[in-house]
Specification:
Length: about 450
């Protein structure tokens, strides 16, 4: 059973968001270089910017700004936009252009940043009785993603986030589900689904009452086929008070206990990008309290230039996480969306970082998998490099796939030291197509916005 947090609440730190409109009120803002301040203001018109007092005061080393990794992780940077786009917005802002004029230019730029990669809008949205369920995605047979409407923001935004389109005020490119009735009905109609991933945004931005309203129906006996509930969240890193001193912190943990008591496996899919995020005393307390409910906490994040593109960051993160009882899960490759050009790392270098870090870990840390690309066919993992018939190749496989039969089948791509995404890779050994490509093309054509059920 959890221990009450009442004794910790003598003077709790209250959540205070910091945005483009309020950042000037922080003492750190005035200490920043003027050009850096302007870059934050300009770029944050295009890409979402939201941080909070905890991140500003406890996670960022302001003596290292702009090179501090958490500053890079949360504050927009000049090079996140190409020169033409930056200058277009800067000219309008400096000239105090009309708000609607700025919005039109900004939205045009956003649509050129691939806001929904890997078929999110076109091939992952399921249907129920001929109706698209816009607040869900069903890409893999066993797993359904659910986007509760009240969870489509975060305590702070990651500058690399592949779901940045959820936060920029453009309803036409946003996923959200208003109610849970469609979720329950879809799950009843699809007994092959064993896992629901509640995502966003960040579901833990919601009060526990709302979270319970969305998820309590999944604990009924009718949902016996549903084995696991996953909650994707950055809150233990960006606002650990959510589980320690917030008004309903105890209620949240009691609900976690209810989920576990119902017989479901509860996995908190923690987004941890750098070891500093789990080293504060508040973060440690939050993680201890979450784990005391019977929930497990897994660690995942992309490999990001300027933030964690070195072996030491990953070895420290995974070792410290395991020490606290967390489970290393995924190292992702930065997805092909948003400010990808600023954050991307060649796949070859990403593989080197992963392998060097992996070799330094004990067996308990080696549950991590990567580098993994969440691409159109599925989660494409780079297993390594090899020389086959005199040709240097990447060896890859699929950890998840639109067709489960594709999972675990090694395949080869020509080694390319500059490639940063799977669509930059070409088949090796004289082949002109990857083994799954013909079937993927057929699925893409036949999907028409809904998930094809393949070998289910």
């Amino acid at each position: 059973m959890i221990q009450t947090a009442a004794s910790s609440r003598s003077a709790p730190e209250r959540y205070r968001a910091v945005t483009r409109h309020t950042i000037h009120r922080t003492p750190q803002w005035e200490a920043m270089d003027p050009e850096l301040r302007e870059a934050v203001e300009i770029v944050s018109h295009v890409l979402p910017f939201r941080v909070n007092s905890y991140v500003v005061n406890h996670l960022i080393d302001w003596d290292r700004v702009p090179d501090d990794p958490i500053f890079q992780l949360t504050f927009p940077q000049r090079a996140m936009l190409d020169d033409d786009d930056f200058n277009r917005v800067a000219d309008l802002v400096r000239g105090q252009a009309d708000r609607d004029e700025i919005k039109a230019v900004v939205n045009e730029i956003r649509m050129g940043l691939n806001p929904h990669p890997a078929g999110q809008m076109t091939h992952n949205v399921p249907e129920l009785n001929g109706r698209r369920l816009e607040g869900m995605q069903h890409k893999y047979r066993e797993t359904l993603l659910f986007f509760p409407a009240r969870g489509q923001t975060c305590h702070a935004y990651c500058t690399y986030c592949f779901r940045w389109a959820q936060f920029v005020g453009m309803p036409e490119i946003k996923f959200e589900a208003r109610e849970s009735e469609d979720l329950v009905a879809y799950l009843k109609a699809h007994p092959e689904i064993t896992d629901v991933l509640v995502t966003g945004g960040d579901p833990m931005i919601m009060k526990t009452k709302l979270l319970r309203e969305y998820l309590a129906p999944l604990l009924s006996e009718e949902m016996e086929h549903l084995k696991t509930i996953r909650i994707g969240t950055k809150s233990p890193a960006y606002w650990p008070q959510r589980f320690v001193t917030d008004d309903d912190a105890d209620d949240a943990l009691r609900f976690f206990e209810d989920v576990v008591r119902s017989g479901k496996h509860l996995a908190i899919m923690g987004h941890f990008s750098h070891p500093v995020e789990i080293r504060t005393e508040m973060a440690r307390k939050a993680l201890r309290r979450i784990r005391s409910t019977g929930a497990e906490v897994r660690m995942q994040a992309p490999l990001i230039r300027h933030v964690n593109d070195n072996v030491e960051a990953w070895t420290d993160l995974w070792r410290e996480g395991v020490r606290q009882g967390l489970i290393p899960y995924y190292m992702f490759v930065e997805r092909d969306t948003g400010a990808k050009n600023y954050f991307e790392i060649p796949l070859a270098r990403g593989l080197e970082i992963y392998q060097e870090a992996f070799r330094q870990l004990s067996g308990l840390c080696r549950t991590v998998r990567g580098p993994s690309m969440s691409a159109h066919p599925g989660k494409v993992r780079i297993l390594g490099t090899a020389e086959v018939h005199g040709e240097k190749v990447f060896v890859l496989d699929l950890l998840q796939a639109r067709n489960p039969d594709w999972v675990g089948r090694p395949f080869f791509a020509r080694f390319d030291p500059e490639a940063t995404w799977v669509n930059h890779l070409e088949p090796a050994l004289g082949r002109d197509r990857f083994f799954f490509q013909d079937e993927l093309d057929e699925l893409t054509v036949s999907a028409a916005g809904a998930l094809p059920v393949v070998n289910a």
